Amino acid sequence: xxxxxxxxxxxxxxxxxxxxxxxxxxxxxxxxxxxxxxxxxxxxxxxxxxxxxxxxxxxxxxxxxxxxxxxxxxxxxxxxxxxxxxxxxxxxxxxxxxxxxxxxxxxxxxxxxxxxxxxxxxxxxxxxxxxxxxxxxxxxxxxxxxxxxxxxxxxxxxxxxxxxxxxxxxxxxxxxxxxxxxxxxxxxxxxxxxxxxxxxxxxxxxxxxxxxxxxxxxxxxxxxxxxxxxxxxxxxxxxxxxxxxxxxxxxxxxxxxxxxxxxxxxxxxxxxxxxx
Length: 276
Ligand code: C2E
Ligand code: CA
Ligand code: CA
Ligand code: CA
Description:
Elements: H1 4-36, E1 39-48, E2 54-65, E3 69-71, H2 73-82, H3 86-101, E4 109-113, H4 124-135, E5 142-147, H5 156-168, E6 171-177, E7 194-197, H6 199-202, H7 211-225, E8 229-232, H8 238-246, E9 251-253, H9 263-272
Parallel strand pairs: 2-4, 4-5, 5-6, 6-7, 7-8, 8-9
Antiparallel strand pairs: 1-2, 1-9, 2-3
Helix pairs in contact: 3-4, 4-5
The protein binds ligand C2E and calcium ion (3 copies).
One calcium ion is lined by residues 176, 198-199.
Organism: Sphingomonas alba
Domain EAL: 23-274
Protein name: EAL domain-containing protein
């Protein structure tokens, strides 16, 4: 190297090229993953905090890449959003999850995650209506999970889409509550059926005097005043469950009750009714 500055540049450049190249490869692979049947849905049970009965499942997307193995949605969902594939993937998720849920007892719900990008299209309520029609799933059995990110621009269009969805009779859940740096003003307008308390508040929470316990207590109080249910996400231990229960949270989800599982296992569990 002729100079330190140049040397540094040369040192970093290949890595950056490599990262960009890897991303490009992943991008072209994702474009065909749907057609090749490499995407599938895992289902994680959601249980009643006191009875521990299974009340529903959340559909979580998985990608079995032929060479890389399992690629995390944390990696490929943002990619799908950037390259304009999320609407197509989102509709596939909705259709697959609704079709699967028709095999479960009528009172067991299925929750589907929606990307904020899916709200940009006017077609969302129409797509949901069409999928319910095609699959024959009762709208009451479908729950749509939305994050605060949907409300960042606070535009009327989003509220029109939400009104359209509510009119269909599906349930709405606010996902990752409290992590989105958003104001609470959307709660003035959107009648969510439940809020999901993010795992970051739940993990390691067993001391009722802790800051996380105080935050969970406040979220549960707010939800109950607004007639919304609460789900605690990421419950891994009996200690966490005990605290969550004592704070009045009605539903729980987490490895303690089941990791996301293949559809056949979820169907079996749905028929049995209890995770214990
Ligand atoms: P999320 O919606 O907040 O989903 C919860 C995540 O926490 C899931 O990760 C789940 O496997 C994980 N989890 C559940 N219980 C526990 C626990 O007890 N301990 C720990 N450590 N983790 C737990 P996953 O499946 O990797 O999904 C990550 C994120 O990817 C989701 O976060 C969601 O934002 C997104 N995602 C997944 N599927 C879809 C989809 O079909 N559409 C869209 N738009 N996003 C999706
Ligand atoms: Ca979710
Ligand atoms: Ca979540
Ligand atoms: Ca989360």
